[in-house]
Design a protein that fits this description.
The chain has 134 residues and is mainly alpha-helical. It is built from six helices and two strands, in the order ααααααββ. The chain is 43% helix and 6% strand.
Length: 134
């Protein structure tokens, strides 16, 4: 904005810095209004979505039943907590809690028999005593 403040036109500033004239206009208006050229905060801040109220229940449910799949968790949330959430939202919430899934299972390798076991990312592995390969 120093370039414009030195007396150059918005059009010449746009050409010099290879931006649109509208961008230069918007920056000049922002500088006039706020006195600075700082970006507005982005994102929603987190912590206040539909799963925030049931975070404790979700974490407890995963710790209670580690072989729970995302689809099963979606159904349980709907039936017991009356919360309708997509499985990706639940996965993001679990990842935010520090939980991840272990893809190596003791079940048959067929897709229909795949169950994911949850573990805490702090390094403590979930061990199934009935399986020697886990």
């Amino acid at each position: 904005m120093d370039f414009v403040e030195e007396g150059h036109t918005h059009r010449s500033a746009a050409a010099r810095f290879r931006v649109s004239i509208k961008f230069v206009n918007d920056m000049v208006l922002l500088k006039r209004r706020t006195g600075a050229l700082e970006a507005k905060p982005q994102g929603n801040g987190g912590g206040h979505g539909k799963l925030a109220g049931v975070a404790g229940w979700i974490e407890g449910r995963i710790r209670e039943k580690r072989d729970l799949t995302l689809d099963e968790l979606v159904v349980e949330l709907r039936e017991t907590q009356s919360v309708e959430a997509h499985r990706v939202s639940i996965w993001r919430h679990l990842r935010g809690l520090g939980l991840t899934h272990k893809k190596k299972t003791c079940a048959p390798s067929s897709r229909s028999g795949l169950k994911l076991r949850w573990r805490v990312m702090s390094g403590s592995a979930v061990v199934n005593p009935s399986c020697a390969t886990c």
